[in-house]
């Protein structure tokens, strides 16, 4: 498995995190800020509900909802995404 260098990524804590320095989840959208997104060639042209994927991040496949791209993305390992595609095509 490849590792991704996240040393230059800007992280932020949730606004729901408390101030006592406890265990909080930190998030970043730096990896996706320059991602080039594409829809499936099977998507229709009427602006319907589609998934968008990006090939911009080595070893990861970000996936988002085209009708609400600012709602966030799911990241899948590239080999897992490839296995998923094989599964749905068979």
Automatic annotation (TrEMBL):
Residues annotated as domain DUF397: 10-27, 35-89
Highest rank taxon of the organism: Bacteria
Region Disordered, annotated ranges: 1-20
Pfam families linked to this entry: DUF397
Protein's name according to its UniProt entry: DUF397 domain-containing protein
Biological source species: Streptomyces acidiscabies
Lineage, top ranks: Bacteria, Bacillati, Actinomycetota, Actinomycetes, Kitasatosporales
């Amino acid at each position: 498995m490849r590792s991704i260098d996240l040393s230059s990524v800007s992280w932020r804590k949730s606004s729901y995190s408390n101030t006592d320095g406890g265990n909080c989840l930190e998030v970043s959208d730096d990896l996706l800020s320059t991602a080039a997104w594409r829809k499936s060639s099977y998507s229709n042209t009427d602006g319907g509900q589609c998934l968008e994927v990006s090939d911009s991040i080595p070893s990861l496949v970000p996936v988002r909802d085209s009708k609400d791209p600012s709602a966030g993305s799911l990241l899948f390992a590239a080999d897992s995404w490839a296995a998923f595609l094989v599964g749905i095509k068979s």
